[in-house]
Amino acid sequence: MKKIAIYILLVTGIYSCKDVVNEVPDTPFSTTAYILNYPTNILPPARIPSDNLLTKEGVQLGRMLFYDPILSADSTQSCQSCHNQADAFTDNQRAFSTGIRGTVGKRNSMPILNLMWHLDGFFWDGRSDILRHQALEPIIDPTEMDETIGNLLVKLNNSAMYTQAFKNAYNVTEIDEELLGKALEQFMLSLVSGNSKYDRVQLGLEEFTVQEKTGETIFNTEATTIYDEPNPDKPKNLGADCFHCHGTGSGLFLRREYLSNGLSDNGDLGRGGANGNALDNYKFKTPTLRNIDKTAPYMHDGRFSTLEEVVQFYLSDMNATSAVDPNDAPNLHALKDSVYLSEAHKSALVSFLKTLTDDEFLTNEEYSNPFK
After folding, report:
1. What percent of the chain has pLDDT over 90?
2. What element of type H or E holds 91?
3. Helix residue ranges per DSSP H, the chain
4. Who's near 125: CB < 8 A, 6+ residues apart?
5. Has residue 368 been placed in a domain?
């Protein structure tokens, strides 16, 4: 009996050792860097968070989440529902978006592009300071997706597809709120627009038409109204002052400050409503003009349907109202001085703005729905 017992132990030991020897060691965790492709001599150096470097696995995961209606309480809406790629990730020409409960929002859907260079907050009022935090707000907003983060994490952790995708991107076995925000952040940071006709002209690959070149000059010139001696009733304007708030210097066509542009008061306090500072009432984030031809309607409340309407608004007389204080709005001087452009110059300005359309960005398959 002792011999049999010893033999069994020896055999067991041999096979145990054999299993150990032949066991395949765990593959070290690794990811593949995601390479951003954009003209670095036109746009600024990339700004990627050091704790969320872009990887192919992370960007793909964020892309999946962005297009998946699982993020909403009833699984009927995704981020893409209000941010359509063909419209520079805005809401299909709608002034306001509608949530899963049929509730209509109060602000126009903002474009999603070149967000890595937004240094002063997100949303029209700047209430989220970090993109990964902004990404979660529409999920929990009762007027949008109306889901709780807790419920969403349960759904994601019960999904073999997502647990594997998070494992591939972040080497984790459980999905949490921080990683959810980081994944969405990765995809949105990858959405870079820098291949418009404007960019190709700067690179010497194309040329503006005469009209577009005139529009560029008007865009980048101080407003200086002169009056013809023979026809004092027909002033000529040498510029439209657009560059003060949407300068071309950085290639971003935006300005970091929150500004009031003289819109009539619709009850939305903007930045002031978010930070409680009355001096910031009626000030809003200055959006980029890149792909502006695709992001109608315009302004935070979508009140203008066309670029021509926007140009005409800025050429109208600007007066101090409850929404703009002439002693507080740094851009009011430009608005008051830009009182006239000829019809030809208005058309030229709009033509220049249309050169900021980046068709490659609007159709890039890397940004499209991965489930189709």
Report:
1. 68
2. none
3. 2-22, 56-67, 131-134, 137-140, 149-157, 160-170, 177-189, 197-202, 210-219, 243-246, 271-275, 307-314, 332-337, 343-354, 359-363
4. 258, 270, 271, 273, 274, 284, 285
5. no
Domain range for 350 is 197-356
Instruction: Using alpha carbons, select from 260, 257, 246, 289 the residue that is nearest to residue 110.
Output: 289
| Tens-digit pLDDT profile for residues 61-115 | 999 999 999 999 999 999 999 999 999 999 999 999 999 999 999 999 999 999 9
- Is residue 6 over pLDDT 50? no
Among 193, 209, 226, the domain boundary falls at: 193
> Coil, helix or strand for 355?
coil
Tokens of 77: 């809406």
Helix axes 56-67, 160-170, angle to 10 degrees: 150
Beta bridge partners of 283: 270
How many other C-beta atoms lie within 10 A of the C-beta of residue 1? 5
Of 175, 193, 211, the domain-final residue: 193
Cβ-based neighbours of 102, under 8 Å, separated by 6 or more: none
In the beta sheet, which residues pair with residue 104?
Answer: 98
**What does residue 219 show for φ and ψ, rounded to 5 degrees?**
-60, -40
